Amino acid sequence: MIVKDITKSLEDLAPLAYAEDFDNVGLLVGDDQQEVTGVLVSLDTLEVTVDEAIENKCNLIVAFHPIIFDGLKSLTGKSYVERVVIKAIQHNIAIYAIHTALDNCFKGVNDMICEQLNLHQRQVLIPQSKTIKKLTTYVPKKNTQKVLDALFAAGAGNIGNYDHCSFTQEGKGSFLPNNEANPVVGENGKLQIEEENQIHVTLATHVEKQVLSALKASHPYEEVAYEVSSLENTNQHIGIGMVGELKNPMDESDFLAHIKTVFNTGVVRHSNRLGNKIKKVAVLGGSGAFGIQAAIASGADVYITADLKYHDFFKAEAKILLADVGHYESEQYTKNLLHSYLTKKFPNFAIVLSQKNTNPIQYS
User: Fold this and answer.
1) b/e code 196-233 from CB counts within 10 Å (16+ = b)
2) How deeply is 237 buried, as exposed, middle or buried, from its count of CB atoms within 10 A (0-12, 13-18, 19+)?
3) Which residues form a coiled coil (predicted)?
């Protein structure tokens, strides 16, 4: 087992292509060809996390938050970030961060929050744009099914709960091979008219490279004509935040007490109570002030997130109950999600769940 085997599996769950542009995800420290002795799964990577990895004979840390975010210009140990990186390198420990790739994953951070709250009918709160593409290509009739099968096997043609989706239209293609060409059909220097099918398939952004490789490998022509375009269609399975419903409505006060228990926090900062029953719940783990308007537009009764500032609470405008449960608290179950996923993928390998509480905020 090497580092790349673990990280590839993680990227099947949460493709890095969907991480936010500002983020720093992927393998941050170490060699992806290094043999893995064990994996420690943590929310953060601090010095105590590296020590915990050493104690458990783990040489790969899979963390939610990236330890390197703004970039490093030196490694002298003057900051906690530099000390973590130095210690990891000294002990040949690789560090991988998944962060907003998992935030934007349908079965990621926010789904885990919904699971803790037992919410049903879950939907993405803020779908990510430009995540669906369309491939158009032209194939001789007799080769059409072979090419389609290869595209489907590579991940193209999936739309929601459907796969093997495509559209085919008959037509005629023309080409004139020059003397340097090696045409499969036709002759050099002669115009060739060929009965072809125009094929359209949709594909997710993260599989574009493998779909194009499959196209070129399965297509009979020496030169393959194709085009890829981004679609404006909303992708209901990629995006940040989530909305779901409680099985039974709750009074606001009862619900606020409930989420204090669920998130194991002594305090929940919230906007003015509205006197409404809580049925529809919007959630967004981590800093989520940017999602307030989307939560209101979704018709949610409450929006659970973290890091709301003073003026953010005014944005409730008597339309929604805003509840700030704390950054760490909103994301605390993420490491359990990653640990469970990796344990199922690699049942006979040492996947260790960090026991360290890395929350830097204390309450008195």
Assistant:
1) bbebebbbbbbbbeebbebbeebbebeebeeeeeeeee
2) middle
3) none
Coil/strand/helix, residue 168:
strand
Binding residues, as ranges, are 65, 103, 327, 331
Residue stretches of the annotated binding site for a divalent metal cation: 65, 103, 327, 331
Q: Encode pLDDT of 140-191 as tens digits.
A: 999 999 999 999 999 999 887 889 999 999 999 999 999 999 998 889 999 9
Are 38 and 107 in contact, with CB atoms under 8 Å apart?
no
- Residue-wise pLDDT for 30-51, tens only, equals 999 999 999 999 999 999 999 9
User: What are the structure tokens assigned to 11, written together?
Assistant: 């990227």
90-113: pLDDT as tens digits? 999 999 999 999 999 999 999 999
Dihedral-angle region of residue 349 (phi above 0 means left; psi in -120 to 50 means alpha; beta otherwise)? beta
- Helix, strand, coil abundance in the chain, percent, nearest 5: 35, 30, 40
Six-digit token pair at 125? 């709160």
DSSP letters of 43-79?
SS--HHHHHHHHHTT--EEEESS-S--S--S--SS-S
Q: Are 306 and 292 in contact (CB under 8 A)?
A: no
Burial (0-12, 13-18, 19+ Cβ within 10 Å), 316: buried
**Pairing relation of β-strands 269-270 and 226-230?**
unpaired
- Residue 301 DSSP class: S
pTM for the structure as a whole? 0.90
pLDDT in the model for residue 228: 96
**Structural domains of the chain in order of their starting residue, each with its CATH number:** 3-101+333-353 (3.40.1390.30), 109-128+239-330 (3.40.1390.30), 132-230 (3.30.70.120)
Quote the crossing angle between the two packed helices 334-345 and 3-13, to the nearest 10°. Answer: 120
Residue 46 and residue 80 in contact, taking contact as beta carbons nearer than 8 Å: yes
